[in-house]
Amino acid sequence: MFLTISTTGTPERPATDLGFLLHKHPEKAQSFSTSHGTAHVFYPEASVERCTAALLLEVDPVALVRRGKGKGRGGAPDAALAQYVNDRPYAASSLLSVAMTTVFKSALNGVCRAMPERVQEPLPLRIEVPALPARGGVELVEKLFGPLGWRSVDAVAVPLDEKFPEWGDSRYVRLVLEGELRLADALRQLYVLLPVLDDAKHYWVAPDEVDKLLRAGEGWLAEHPEQRLITSRYLSRRWGLTRQAMERLELVRLAESDDLEVESVDNAVDETTDTEEKPVPLAEQRRAAILEALRAAGASRVLDLGCGQGQLVQALLKDVRFTEIVGVDVSMRALTIASRRLKLDRMGERQAGRVTLRQGALTYTDKQLKGYDAAVLSEVIEHLDLPRLPALEYAVFGSARPRTVLVTTPNVEYNVRWETLPAGHVRHGDHRFEWTREEFRSWARQVSERHGYGVAFVPVGADDPEVGPPTQMAVFTMSAEKNATGEKTGTETDRTTDHRTGTQTDRTTDHRTGTQTDRMTDEKTKETKAA
């Protein structure tokens, strides 16, 4: 197996700097023992103007077969080749990728203490692989390397026999890449794509291969148009590992699109504490209030947007009137925990058909979320930066447009009642804000007016006469439309509780007439009056 890396230079930036970046001296020929042979590094040319480093891997095919108990690449026999007479000593494959990690480890990691500034600079590179197995031919080679910033991707098919052109081409190509890239980026691309093109590996693919793929693919794989094919082939078509890698790559893509760190996006699970509030009954009361509102709305197909660890989805599944439940969250860790909580892998077919867990960012429109009876945003909005709220608002109220939307959020006024919460602190480290009752109602009224919804406000938890309830909930109903003159024609409802008498009052405002109607409920007698 043979690979050359060439660059050009000037007296100010000599080409022999390549030796420093590869950590291999141009005046020496060096040999390294690998798990399946011996790797040699030498420089056919080394001058100020041009420098070429060559990697030659000598493989013992007999020892390789004996170590693999008679099986070919990836543990699968190759019907076209005999066990002892084959292409493995000559054609670039995963064996060469492994040799690169042994010989050029520092260069792959982008480390050079002698010239740290050169590591980050693009170099004029020419990389040549004389014999590269390509299951997919020249077209696939160009699809894989073309989007990666190379100025030229020259892949020429090698004929089966030049004397008999009618036999056609073999599955091997001669590859030449030219362009200006960082050396570390070029080496990482080769490390991943050599076994991908061969569509085989000479060793067992373990779960840690996912981490290797993501490290080598950092900065280019998440946005590659052939991401699925690359991931599947690199992981030897092990579908469980492929799915895991694709989920993590999607999280990387979402973080990069918002210019955020992956950790800041995947923060729905607090690894040190339970994310449910203490005491637990408040979380239970919140779910009970949501279920009551969904039943009152007659909803059967429900979206749980920002479903987290799946507590609400679990509660919805217990009620047969909810026939379709979709949990959406940006965090794959949270969705994995939700799947375990729900025991999806052991759930009966009929029950499993009622629930779907999906990864998605709530600030982006998704046509698959349209047409549902209701959507729930339970303790979600406070995790977004305020400038991003309009995007979430449009995605839910402007694009998805369920008939009913429930939004719950902490009431910051109630925080003074939490003895363990220091003054001025929010309830969760990831909360970007916490609103007063008036701030929340002002936002909800503006949303309802912009998108044609009516809104009612319901307290969740003990409704303190001074600071209100610990959680506040807005119930949006698609009934508030504007007439031709721009006047509101919908209704708005506000619920208050008199703790001395136990009476609840729902005050409804009709925006067409300006009239207000109070509906009082005595919790002791369950009698109702209209005033």
List the helices and strands and how they pair.
Elements: E1 2-8, H1 17-22, E2 30-34, E3 37-46, E4 50-59, H2 61-67, H3 94-103, H4 105-108, H5 116-119, E5 123-133, H6 137-145, E6 152-159, E7 169-181, H7 183-198, H8 208-216, H9 227-234, H10 239-257, H11 262-265, H12 281-296, E8 301-305, H13 311-317, E9 324-329, H14 332-342, H15 349-352, E10 355-359, E11 374-378, H16 389-400, E12 404-410, H17 437-451, E13 454-460, E14 471-477, E15 491-498, E16 503-510, E17 516-522, E18 528-530
Average pLDDT, rounded to a whole number, is 83
The major β-sheet equals: 11 strands, mixed
The percent of residues in helical segments reads 25-40%
Shape type? elongated
Strand order of the largest sheet: 10-9-8-11-12-14-13-15-16-17-18
Question: Which parts are unreliable, with pLDDT below 50 for 5 consecutive residues or more?
Answer: 69-81, 480-489, 523-531
According to DSSP, the number of beta strands is 18
Number of helices: 17
What share of residues are in beta strands? 15-25%
Structural class, by secondary structure, is alpha+beta
The N- to C-terminal Cα distance equals 89 Å
